[in-house]
Amino acid sequence: MTTIARTLGIKKILDWKLMLASQLPQPYWNPYIAGVGLGLVLLASFVIMGRGLGATGAFSSVIAAGVEQVAPDHARSSEYYTRYLGDSTNPLKDWLVFEIMGVVVGGFLSGTLAGRVKKSTERGPRISVRGRMIYAFCGGLTMGFGAKLARGCTSGQALTGGALMSVGSWVFILAVFASAYCVAYFVRKEWT
Amino acid sequence: MDMNAPFFEFGLFGEGTSLIVAFIVGIGFGFFLERAGFGSARKLAAQFYLTDLTVFKVMFTAVVTALLGLFWLSWIGFLDLSRVNLLPSYPLPQAVGGLIFGIGFVSGGYCPGTACVAASTGKQDGFVHILGMATGILLFGEIFPYLSRFYDSTALGEVTLADAIGIPSNVMVFLIVVLAVLGFVAAERIEDWSAKKLAGER
User: Fold this and answer.
1) What is the pLDDT of residues B31-67, one digit of tens each?
2) Is there a contact between B31 and A110 if contact means CB atoms under 8 Å apart?
3) Which residues of chain A neighbour B24 with C-beta distances below 8 Å?
4) Which end of chain B is more exposed for a tag (fewer CB within 10 A), N or C?
5) Where are the domains of chain A?
6) Closest by CA position to A104, among listed B57, B188, B116
């Protein structure tokens, strides 16, 4: 096996990749190339499944399943949770739940190959780790709520609905950018 | 050409296989998000300080790629667009949801998909962001009875921009592509301008 690998030069490439990964992180791809790649994944999903990508829906299924575990009657009587619980099958055997597990694997794979997997906290120079974590939690909470109200997030609405030219999705895209630009000034200490 | 896509809709495989497809599609999705730099909150947030417009460029390149792909594949008769799942539009709650989402985006630093990529590449703030998101979804679920009327307001059904404006679909595709290209040119200029401004400050 090793002989074959050596003959083909695969081992050399692997060694080189590992060496690189342990040293400097590689630069990100050109945004237009990454964008075409992302667009082709989205297109493949449309062609194979007849549906686009998503992210928030996966979390909704997990939350609904969790609520059902803790308070079954409460979950079963909720018009909202029952949407994600389905009739009798496991709510986690869901298309988006499997897709998001793939996202985690794909992100890790790309990060590993480029030497970018590192325990760290993303923040600007003027904010503490603790402060950044508070922002991350509150921002996440706000975002989760907004995504539910909008029936989707940047994946389910902006990318998927955007490519299908859905009216609601384009309204969502414009609202997200408008709001983020308006709020950016007030959280500038976090990033700049 | 025989129309046989979307494959799942035409019964080429079942539910079980669809979950494997989901996992593989997800790997591709996560891979390109990470390649673009979306595992980094600083890179994502820079979009809103005009120093790095990667978010805009990647998002609209992806939208245009998929949009043109859908258009051509249905034009040659390979893909039945009527069987592709179009989400119904509710412009008012979606606008308000988008405004709330935008606040979360710039302060949390991620969107739901990119938070997963961040967490999987070791960013602890990405993980905390996911915990926040889960809490927000739970909160929404708990107060849903009070929101359901607003949530279902302005129901327009499955409607595209072409329908709403009253122009043919292919003209709308063309307009979006033109707007995107103009947007890319503008984005490159804005980045140059920001770089010069920053260099001047130093």
Assistant:
1) 999 999 999 999 999 999 999 999 999 999 999 999 9
2) yes
3) 102
4) C
5) 124-192
6) B116
